[in-house]
Fold this protein.
Amino acid sequence: MRLIDVDIFLERERQMEEEGTIVRDTTTILKVLHDLDTDYAILSHRWKDEVDYLEITQLTKMENRDEIRKRGGYQKIVKSCQQAKIDGLEWIWVDTCCIDKRNSTELSEALNSMFRWYANSRRCYAYLHDIDVFPTTPDHETFSGSKGWPEWFSRGWTLQELIAPTDLQFFNKDWQLIGDKRNLACMLMEITRVPRGVLEDGLAAYGPSVAQVMSWAADRTTTRVEDRAYSLMGLVDVNMPMLYGEGKKAFLRLQQEIIRKSSDQTIFAWDPTDQTPQACCVLADDPSLFRDCHDIIQIDSKEFYSELSGLWNPPGNGANRGDTGPLQRRNHYFWRFLFPQQWTIQMQVFHPFTVTNMGIHVQLPARRYGGYPLILQVVLACKREGSLEPIVINLSPWRTRYYRFTGEVKCDLLPTSFQHSQIILAYEGQGASSGIVIEEVGGVVASLLDQCAAKSGMNVGYNNEHRFGVTSAEIHRVPGRWLQISPSVHPLSVPFSFFFTVLFLGLVARPGAILFFAAAMIILAIVWILSEASAGIPFIRLCKPECSSRGEYIIGSGMEIVVLRGRGRAVPSITHSETMMSFHVLQDVRIVVIILGAILFVSEGLFLEPSAAQRLLSLLPFLAILVLLSLLPFCQALSKALRSWSLIQVLYRLELRKYTFSTRITGIVFALLLLRTEKAAEVMNDLLPITDTKAWRRWKTIVLDRIRRGGDFNIDTTDWDDGTWTDREREMLVGLFQNAHDAYRVFERHLAESAFERPPA
């Protein structure tokens, strides 16, 4: 770092003030020294008319040096050097003149090192240019632009200059000492919201969360937008290159750097505002969104899992999938009872974040809302001080990534436990803008999409090279709660059930079996069968009347979409189905049944004398395994047949009509005509993520206008050709409008067929 030699600077100033000429050589005012080996003072101030590096080094050679010396910025340097000399310090650092800002490398190094330089200084002088005495109450009339306090407390860079120095002294506009950081800690805490522990003991000793640090900077401003992020680098202990011109991307880049080195989940706990999009990236775009996060603290992993012990099952060492049973994991309570120390060691850390070009890969406990397939609730490992409940946020899936959902959800959570899920969080961009298009589906909806994809519909295209399928699915009756069918029976559920049922019944039938053991085996067999059925049979939950879910959705997957519409609560009631028992719980039940069955088998042998029949029956498990292997293809076929049968039971209430188009554009225009939604523009953007060119914008504008007005699509070239298009653009637009016209013809046919099948009463 470059430091000002206090003696040389003051001597040069004395000669210019008294003699008007420079007698001694005072050109080496700045010298490069190491901050760890030097005792130096440092200045903290609000920039006004400052003196830069070139002016401070070449002052004696400049013709306008008298004008420079009269500037307020130059006088601050003089006064700070005089104060440093009084304090016995030979060196001082001033940011305005000790950095050559013409050198981008030097500027980047200085900004990345600034927090350390302030922390390693022997004494810091905070110059408050707009006060006489330190304020004790806000004065909104005098300081209207800085929330009633001196301007120094409203600037972004002065936050780290307040926290980093150990010895910080405040001076008024006349350079009179008005207090230091320790004596004024209580008042400073009220002004800045920085805790007293941070002011007195330092940042490292207090250990604030990322959200708390961001909240301190929420109301501070900087001249450049990028400095909102760069001024926080030292406070969150990260380094990154300076890219002036990137705007708000700087704050997103700062958060990505934090995630790469920290597992602090408070970074996701920001509060959205009215201007925040309903589906946005999981990272805040401005520190102001952390304004009310000053009391959000981290939760250590053991406390976090303890709070959630009744809601979900924590992940294990090598099993991070949602279909892995907790009893198979070494950190389940079953293993904790046997190996308590192992639990303590394993639960000390969270799974790390991984930042890739796809997004932020993270494992979070998740839970879904009933009848609302777009939203997922996740729990963060943080809470507010004084609260026992962890903070939860809502996510919305869109194209393999999850976005922060800031809208209101009036649905109840499904009565199932949280499951630890590996998800990819989007750190930039926005999710589906329409709130209608669903790309990640499950349960009955996924089965509906699969069946529609396999179904051959009415071909309305001119060739079959590319077939884009659009299915109109309408439901006008609410499914009954009795409708407990199996749209997604696990392929191995039937073989497992068959094998263990045969095994248990064989053991029960052993000659000479004691009645107690026979009854116990029968109970285990019943528990096993019921568990298999509960894990493989989802049921439809009726959506409540106050449910805010829409009555229409577009279910999309590649070259196939389904337009799902209905009345009342019909559509939101079938958009999500859950099994009565999750699959990972079923695996725990299997383990428990196997252990209890083995105990009963061994215990029974202690009470019975071996016989030839018993020896013969001991081969029953091996015979059952051979039968299982031979029947496995049959069981898989049976599972597929059950899925098909269950779909018939569900979809007999749906009116399905499928059309196949030769182009995707024709199919999407047809789907928009079916919906007639007020969000046609958003739906089109979700389904057609195309380049935003002039030709596409013109085509979208005309097509969306015809959809809203319900007019025909006989669009003549005079409606759009103003003579400014190139031949290639004109040819493309003719083809696009022809596609839209073809879609409207199919739509008219669809309306005629629907009216014929359901004539008005």
Observations:
- Residues 312-348, 481-490 have pLDDT under 50 and may be disordered.
- The two ends are 87 Å apart (CA to CA).
